[in-house]
Write a structure and sequence with these properties.
Blueprint lengths: L4 E6 L3 E7 L2 H6 L7 E3 L2 H9 L7 E5 L1 H11 L4 E4 L6 H12 L3 E2 L12 E7 L5 E6 L13 H5 L1 E7 L6 H16 L3 E5 L3 H6 L1 H8 L3 E7 H8 L4 H8 L3 E7 L5 E4 L4 E4 L12 H13 L5 H15 L9 H10 L4
Parallel strand pairs: 1-5, 1-9, 2-7, 3-8, 5-6, 9-10, 10-11, 11-12
Antiparallel strand pairs: 2-4, 7-8, 12-13, 13-14
Helix pairs in contact: 3-11, 6-8, 9-10, 11-12, 12-13
């Protein structure tokens, strides 16, 4: 019996505000380049006031949300469990998620009062992305936002690593994973950011537990998590915690372990101007592929091509016509 959803995602709901800055701007505002930093509302407002917000691009986001939207854009079915407030950005988020073809726990429900989270994504001309995030109401994300029926009716649960920063987030991650495992739903997790592995390593290990079905990470995260200093050792160590995994390698492509063999995914050489969302899109495209009859190798090619397209433009998402072009190019339609 087929499931209603290919992927059920849990993660932070953030309105992404993507803008261009120079390195001096980051220095002047004491912002650590290339990382995701959690900030309070006052700090974010101060930085936002110094930016030309009218020239910035706004869309519903958060790491897992970007992946879940990608699944839908490629033609898959997806559900997103999240938390936004009953404010202007919260209502914008709900509408944008729906128009992206994603079902969610926000559908048909009144939103709580509070402040919707937002992520200021600052890109520099060397294609580096720096994120300042004010979580707002999404910091209160808990197991009560998880729609059990939709999760049980999914092929994969996809867990965002950023949730590990709060106790209620960790609880939601563990609860969702347990529910998935009890109902024959495969579990996938993304580490999300090197800082999550660096500062929340033990918490992350407690979420991963005995094993995860599919892990997404980059080279730095793989080595930090396994406590190794080279990729060969890291990938062997990862086998203990993940049945299958994907290690993205930026301009060098990706390495996939399918549970039996390692598959090298060749990169597509492009002129990158914004790496924001490349990993999220890779995960979304890959999940779409493996839940729609594709091999790990073909899903990897699809994900590599998709992420190579998104880094040539600003913002973490592709347009609908771009996903169709990618499927046509790889003859996957």
């Amino acid at each position: 019996m087929s499931k209603k959803y290919n992927v059920f995602g849990i993660g932070n709901a953030l309105v992404d505000i993507v803008t261009e800055v120079d390195n001096q701007f980051l220095t002047d505002h004491n912002i650590e380049k290339g990382l995701m930093t959690l900030v309070d509302e006052e700090n974010q407002t101060r930085i936002s006031d110094a930016i030309n917000m009218s020239a910035s691009n706004k869309q519903c986001g958060g790491s897992a949300a970007n992946s879940i939207i990608a699944v839908a854009q490629f033609g898959g079915s997806s559900y997103y469990s999240c938390k936004v407030a009953n404010d202007e950005l919260g209502n914008f988020y709900r509408k944008d998620l729906k128009s992206s073809g994603v079902d969610s726990n926000l559908d048909g429900h009144d939103l709580e009062s509070g402040i919707t989270g937002k992520c200021l994504v600052m890109t520099t001309d060397d294609a580096s992305r720096t994120m300042n995030t004010f979580l707002g109401i999404t910091s209160e994300y808990s197991r009560s936002e998880i729609t059990e029926a939709a999760l049980k009716d999914s092929e994969y649960l996809y867990i965002e690593g950023y949730l590990v920063t709060s106790e209620n987030g960790q609880d939601a991650m563990k609860y969702a994973k347990k529910l998935a495992e009890e109902n024959g739903v495969k579990t996938a997790l993304t580490f999300s950011d090197p800082s999550m592995v660096k500062y929340f390593k033990e918490q992350m290990k407690s979420v991963v537990g005995a094993s995860i079905d599919l892990l997404f990470c980059n080279e730095e995260e793989a080595m930090l998590y396994t406590g190794t200093d080279n990729l060969q050792e890291a990938r062997e160590a990862l086998k203990k915690d993940a049945k299958r995994f994907v290690i993205t390698q930026g301009k060098n492509g990706a390495m996939i372990y399918d549970g039996d063999t390692f598959i090298d995914i060749e990169p597509y050489n492009v002129n990158a101007i914004d790496t924001n969302g490349a990993g999220d899109l890779f995960a979304g495209a890959f999940l779409y592929g493996i839940t729609n009859g594709r091999s790990f190798a073909d899903a990897g090619k699809l994900a590599s091509l998709a992420s190579s397209k998104v880094v040539t433009q600003f913002g973490p998402r592709l347009e609908w016509h771009q996903t169709k072009d990618i499927l046509n190019q790889l003859q996957l339609v």
